[in-house]
Write a structure and sequence with these properties.
The chain has about 210 residues and is an all-alpha fold. It has two domains: about 80 residues, Endonuclease Iii, domain 2 (Orthogonal Bundle); about 100 residues, Endonuclease III, domain 1 (Orthogonal Bundle). The protein is built from twelve helices and no strands. α3 packs antiparallel against α6, α8 packs across α9 and α10 packs across α12.
Length: about 210
């Protein structure tokens, strides 16, 4: 399966997804075009996702904007390690995120973590390789795999906006807990990443706000 870094791949996979599950046709009509902001794999992409943990899109964007002004610290792990904590004053990163970024940066510099290799691994292996580091949970790892590695078959069931979107779009009687949502999303394999993009876009269109994580 090709990764979803390119718009033509997203369009092709969406067409195949809609053919696979006809219930999604009205969802797609309401959502409109899918134009996600994809990012290259590496420290910068993972740092961007870590910055956005448990924050609104607007808050995460503001923090990333400030972080990006601190030299190459947001892009290069060595530069991040060279920046003392005082250099992050005013950025808005929590202490735990500062530490998570330090852990990831150290693992990259020491060669313990290879994000380029992870981008080509099966989902289960890639998730295991990322979540072994404190501060990187399933949501962070899945968002990185989708938006940075471009993996085509990821559905972050722990994302609240995604869960609410599926509930609304499919008219579920009960809240879709992660385990139930995983079962529902299994019908959209091997295009689950595009399905996730579709439901984020749908929720944003219905609520008139940006909910795409990065």
């Amino acid at each position: 399966m090709p990764n979803i870094h390119h718009q033509e791949v997203i369009d092709q996979q969406l067409a195949q997804l809609l053919e696979q599950d006809r219930r999604l046709a009205p969802v797609s009509q309401a959502a409109g075009p899918l134009h996600p902001r994809m990012h290259p794999p590496g420290f910068e992409g993972l740092a961007r996702v870590i910055c956005g943990q448990q924050l609104s899109v607007a808050s995460a964007g503001a923090i990333w904007q400030r972080f990006s002004t601190r030299g190459d610290a947001a892009r290069d792990p060595g530069s991040y390690l060279a920046l003392c904590d005082a250099g992050l004053d005013g950025v808005g990163l929590s202490r735990s995120k500062v530490q998570t970024l330090r852990t990831v940066a150290r693992a990259l510099v020491d060669g313990q973590l290879d994000l380029a290799a992870i981008a080509g691994q099966p989902v289960a292996d890639a998730l295991a390789a990322l979540t072994r580091y404190k501060g990187i949970g399933p949501w962070t790892a899945e968002i990185y795999l989708m938006f940075c590695a471009g993996h085509p078959d990821v559905f972050p069931v722990g994302d609240l906006a995604l869960r609410k979107s599926v509930e609304m779009a499919l008219g579920l009687d009960e809240a879709a807990q992660p385990s139930a949502l995983a079962r529902i999303a299994s019908a959209w394999a091997p295009y689950r990443s595009v399905a996730a993009l579709l439901f984020w876009r749908y929720y944003g269109a219905v609520r008139n706000k940006e909910v795409m994580p990065v």
